């Protein structure tokens, strides 16, 4: 049985994620009170549901202690449990609330309502902080809904492993993804962008691959990142980490970082099951 708990900041795209999981065959429940999670999963498991997704957020009376206890109990029953947390920058969230004209959930609690929208967002961030080490984090800043749906589908389809390892390429000119655990800057490598005939291609295309493979520095960079992640991955596992995102950045996020992320993901797939590969810039552009 597979259980995905979806949480994150209000306005970060949880509804889109839950809708995608429903389209992928999950039995989905939105805004379930956290104390009922174990009971609901037990009931659904008893009636033959083998893929369940539950959305929990600041309205769900979420407690780290209760959630850990529930996860431990369910793990003993052999449930494949994953936690997905969505986040976004303050500016992105403020813009989304401005467009929808909806009220932030925390603003609806008169006993502790923050004064402004930004204060409500920051308070919700603090509430979610204890859960982040146990979640696969997706930064939805600048993401189109179709891209988010695609990333959620890849996360759900990743093979079960004690730690899901994500390689994500990005462009520094658009900022470092908030979901990054480890960030590697590959802007020092030869840039295919300056070869006019190569500019239209991406790091997944043969001309770019052949171009970058000519340079020993590129291979050395890949080997160094591979060695670093391989060396320290057991330490992250030992700290009970279930998710680790390795972000690879170049200037535009279309050539060097894509090639290196692709190469690393291919290497690690030969050693681990839980590998996720995504390209922030390319996925946003539909390439």
Can you walk me through this structure?
It is a single chain. The protein is of the alpha/beta class and 287 residues long. The chain folds into two domains: 2-157, Rossmann fold (3-Layer(aba) Sandwich), CATH 3.40.50; 165-285, no CATH class. Helix content is 42%, strand content 18%. The protein is built from ten helices and nine strands. Strands 2-3-1-4-5 form a five-stranded parallel sheet, sandwiched between helices. Strand 2 (27-29), helix 2 (37-46) and strand 3 (51-55) form a beta-alpha-beta unit. Helix 1 (14-23) crosses helix 6. The chain starts with a strand and ends with a helix. The model has no long low-confidence stretch (mean pLDDT 89). It comes from Turicimonas muris. Keywords: ATP-binding, GTP-binding, Nucleotide-binding. GO terms for molecular function: ATP binding; GTP binding. It holds the Pfam family PapZ_C. This is RNase adaptor protein RapZ.
